Automatic annotation (TrEMBL):
The keyword Signal applies. Residues 1-30 form the signal peptide. This is Uncharacterized protein. Keywords: Signal. It comes from the Bacteria.
C-alpha cells in the first residue's frame, strides 16, 4: 500500500532527523542499551500521548524494532561516540501525516561537559550542518532528503536551547521539520516535529519541548506514572 510505504519512510526520515540534532562532540551516558530501545517503557519525565492534540497515537509496535535499529545505526555515525538513550518517543497522526519524535540523554555533570554540550547545541542553527548530514545519511535511510530552506528557531526552555525550522524535499514532496535541542541540568533533550503537508503542524515544537521541560523540573517523587492510553 502506497500510504503504508510513505508512513514507514516518514518514520525512518524522522528518526534520522531527530538524531542529527545531537551535539556531535559531547560524550553522553545513559542506562538503557539501544538494543532494548524498542521494548522499553517511557519514564515519567518524557512526552506522553496526553500531551499531544487529538488524533495522535503511539507508533505501532510493529515499527518499534525497526526504529530501534535505525537509532543503533545512526548514533555512532552522527556522534562518533557510544551513544546511549534514556527515553525515545515517537507519536504519529495518520490523518495529517505528522510525526513527533524525540529522546532524552544524561550528560556528565562536570562543568566542562555541560559547557561543551551548550556550545555544540548551536550547530542545529547552521544550515551547513544539515546539508552535510543529509548527504551522509541518505545511503543509511534510503530516503533522498535535500535541505530547501533553513531558519533558526530558538526554543524558550531549559538552561540552554537551540532550534531550527527546515523545509526538506523528501518522499516526492516538501516536508516541514521543526527541530530543537535543550539542556535542563544534566539532561539533554532532543525533539522534532515533522509535517508532510503544507499546513501548520498541530503539535508545535515549543509546546512539546515545554511539556518535557516541565516534567524535568518536577521532583522525581512528584512525577506521576504515565498511563497507557489510546485515542
Amino acid at each position: 500500500m502506497k500510504t503504508s510505504k510513505i508512513f514507514k519512510r516518514s518514520l525512518a526520515l524522522m528518526s534520522a532527523i531527530t538524531l542529527v540534532t545531537i551535539p556531535t562532540h559531547t560524550n553522553l551516558h545513559a542506562a538503557t542499551p539501544l538494543s532494548q530501545l524498542g521494548q522499553q517503557a517511557a519514564s515519567p519525565a518524557t512526552l506522553r500521548l496526553e500531551d499531544l492534540p487529538a488524533g495522535f497515537e503511539e507508533v505501532p509496535s510493529a515499527y518499534k524494532p525497526q526504529l530501534a535499529a535505525y537509532v543503533s545505526q545512526f548514533a555512532p555515525l552522527l556522534t562518533k561516540q557510544n551513544l546511549q538513550i534514556n527515553d525515545y518517543f515517537v507519536y504519529v497522526n495518520r490523518n495529517t501525516l505528522e510525526v513527533v519524535s524525540g529522546f532524552t540523554t544524561t550528560i556528565p555533570s562536570q562543568p566542562l561537559s555541560l559547557l561543551r554540550f551548550d556550545a555544540n547545541l548551536r550547530q542545529v542553527e547552521q544550515p551547513q550542518y544539515w546539508q552535510q548530514l543529509f548527504a551522509k545519511l541518505q545511503p543509511q535511510i534510503g530516503v533522498a532528503a535535500n535541505l530547501l530552506e533553513h531558519q533558526p528557531n530558538r526554543l524558550n526552555v531549559g538552561n540552554s536551547s537551540a532550534g531550527a525550522t527546515l523545509e526538506i524535499g523528501a518522499l516526492n514532496q516538501r516536508a516541514q521539520v521543526d527541530v530543537g535541542s535543550f539542556r535542563r541540568g544534566n539532561v539533554g533533550v532532543f525533539t522534532a516535529v515533522m509535517s508532510l503537508n503544507h499546513t501548520t503542524p498541530q503539535a508545535s515544537l515549543q509546546d512539546v519541548a515545554t511539556k518535557v521541560d516541565q516534567r524535568l523540573l518536577q521532583p522525581k517523587t512528584n512525577r506521576s506514572t504515565p498511563v497507557s492510553s489510546t485515542r
